[in-house]
Amino acid sequence: MVDLKQVYDVIVVGSGAAGGIAAKELTEGGAQVLLLEAGPALDPHKDFLTHRWPYEMPFRGFDKPGDRQKSYPNQWTADEYSRGLYIEDPEHPYTTPPGKPYTWVRSRCVGGKMLHWGRNARRLSDFDFKAADRDGYGENWPITYADLAPYYDKVESFVGVSGSIENIPHLPDGKYLPPMPLNCGERMVQKVAPALGMRVIPKRAAQRTAAIHGLMKCHYCGHCGRGCDVGAFWNSISDAIPAAVRTGRLTLQSNAIVRHVTVDGGGRPTGLHFIDRATKQHYEAKGRVIVLGASALESTRILLNSVSRFWPNGMANSSGVLGHYLMDNFGGPGISGLLPQLRDRTPVNEDGKSSGVDIVAYRNITSRHPRFIRSYTHEGGSGARLFPGYAKAMVGYGAEFKKSVRSWYTTPLSFNTRAEVLSRFENYIEIDKNVVDAWGVPVLKIHCQFGDNEREMAKDAVENLKALFHALGAEHVRVSTELQNPGSMIHDMGTARMGADPKKSVLNRFNQTHDLKNLFVVDGAAFVTSGGYGPTLTIGALAARASGYILAQRKRGDL
């Protein structure tokens, strides 16, 4: 429990990818750390429904009619198995302008969204960090790949990432465990795709194919989205937080909803004001250094709510860009079909391998596309699944229909698109002073929409996926062309971005605010560009790098 009289060396907010790694690195470096998490601590063996069969669930794994619309309409990745890992939307409102919907997916529990994330662990490269040099749009990051590479190494070596060495300049290799093997359909794609200018590689997943330093390996149950009760992938509660606990220098306080940063008579951070989730009592914790890692939108919300005579427009916001440049990776353009070459096979445990394959970014790498800048990837996979979702698109009746569904059971193939969203000042968040959450904390109003660049990229992605499925001879093909709402990919980024110029950014190259040397933001809010794929590994690497900087500055007496 938090000691309200103690002044901690560092207070970290959030226990997911950013906060978990920060807590581990800081405690191992000798700092006394208080870790504040807004939600409860869960017991994987009691609270995760990882291995329940559908017939053991009241609604066979789907939702009770009306539950989603009432309790969690925005938590689109949740279902009957996993909804306990997500927030209840009525307790956590946010607002958007008319005609600009935003889907904000959230988890409030120790470990956060790491308990059920997609486990994509790809490194950014100088194609991302220095993208403005290539196409003239936006700003470069104030760091290079060489600056971050040692911290990618550190995180990968600790959490365990499975993958293959491919020597692709714009997708750097890492410290990998053996990749999960490809199944028949995925190997077919890997053989056909190069003729279309596409390269297919095993998914780089923060999911262990071998046990390392006491952490379990995957046992191929295929239910990662329900929470992993054996801790076989990077999820904070099985790796980073236990490592921090072992140092004897971590204090974990769950159910602590941070409202704002407290300041002294000069406007300098002294700690955090938080609310007990259950009792709604208010408290203040004291710390010499504040590290926000609560997720891009939540960390920025804390800063925007930290209003005082020193910071009338939000803490560390002398630039006026706090909250601006909101990004997500867009998704939605996708395709599914059935491979007739794989009909009537004996089903095997293909749905237990939840890794799949990636089609590596191939647009605007060596030449410039005439209609859009930046790039995208495709994520996908093949094989039998427990529930034959493809059957809904098939025609027939009775015994012959069942026979046909069984014949095609081993043939499904699908791919989606994950793409870069450009950083725009007009995509931003602000405090809605007319609405508060269940604890009385003012909520966010989110202004975000896609532009022509994203729409043109989506059109291109769909046409290329259609060409791939045609080359594969796929049948019963279904194509999705619509973009999902911003936020739907759960990759919120950019609202407190780093930069070399304090007039254009909130953070410096070490995730330290330009305005206040003892205030850091280490989650996706720091991103300058979004890249074409998930930010989680980069968030972990940035958190590790910032933690090393904090430790070095403390040793010098500068913090």
Question: Which key features would you list for this structure?
Answer:
six-stranded antiparallel beta sheet, FAD/NAD(P)-binding domain, alpha/beta, single chain, 559 residues, 12 helices, 17 strands, seven-stranded mixed beta sheet, 22% helix
- Residue ranges: pLDDT <50 for 5 or more in a row? none
| CATH-defined fold name of the domain at 1-53 and 105-160 and 234-328 and 492-559 | FAD/NAD(P)-binding domain
The CATH class of the domain at 1-53 and 105-160 and 234-328 and 492-559 is identified as Alpha Beta
Total beta strand runs: 17
Based on secondary structure, the structural category is alpha/beta
Shape: globular
Instruction: Please tally the helical runs, counting DSSP H or I stretches of 4 or more residues.
Output: 12
Overall CATH architecture of the domain at 1-53 and 105-160 and 234-328 and 492-559: 3-Layer(bba) Sandwich
The main sheet comes to: 7 strands, mixed
Series of secondary-structure elements, N-terminal to C-terminal:
EHEHHHHHEEHEHEEEEHEEEHEEEHEEH
- Give the helix proportion (percent range): 10-25%
**What gyration radius follows from the Cα positions, in whole Å?**
23 Å
* Distance between the amino and carboxyl termini: 25 Å
Average pLDDT number? 96
- Within CATH, the superfamily of the domain at 1-53 and 105-160 and 234-328 and 492-559 carries the name FAD/NAD(P)-binding domain
**Beta-sheet strand percentage?**
15-25%
